[in-house]
Design brief:
Layout: H1 2-66, E1 70-76, E2 82-88, E3 117-120, H2 127-135, E4 139-143, H3 149-160, E5 165-169, E6 177-181, E7 184-187, H4 194-203
Parallel strand pairs: 3-5, 4-5
Antiparallel strand pairs: 1-2, 2-7, 4-6, 6-7
Length: about 220
Amino acid sequence: MGSAKKSSNTARQARIAEMRRAEEARGRRNRILMIALSTVVVVGLVAGGVVLVRSQSDDSSDEAAAEGKASGKFVTGEDGVRTWDGDLGRNHVTKKVSYPVEPPVGGDHNQVWMNCNGDVYTKPLENEHAVHSLEHGAVWVTYTDKAPKADVEKLAAKVKQTPYSLMSPDDGQKDPIVLTAWGHQRTVTGADDPDVNAFFENFVQGEQTPEPGAACTNGLSQ
């Protein structure tokens, strides 16, 4: 009888010990799961914070870039060429840019350039694309409806024969005919004005070019 009780107590203690071991194992598993879950939450919060900060930074950069990042003024040389004295941003942006002059001579711009391999456009261009062409060393000829038709046709013929040049109407500019390169600009009296050739010679892929040799094809076209 005593032997039976002893055997029963031993078995009960064994079951209790087994239950304790199982409970301790569950506790360890739960602690491990809690630690893992906490780690995931912390990592998620950190990653989310980084994304938020980057997003806010990108938005701030894009908003700042949308202001043009072009501060300064024109200085007119003896040859009549106006040179921009100041900063011209070169960031790629997706928003519209408020340029300080029309047509612009540089500044932040869209990442896609206008084709400028002697391209003549019959509709106004988005400044953000044309400015990128200037960055590649192109000369941009613009004109208003006050420019004589004969001059427009002669200038178009010259542009078509000149790689790294483009032409388009721009009724937002003050003068009938304007020639623009990165950081430089001038008005001319007409297609036969000798300053036309001088401007092309000096600024088509000239020393002012921020990205000499960059493509003027495979960009945007009307």
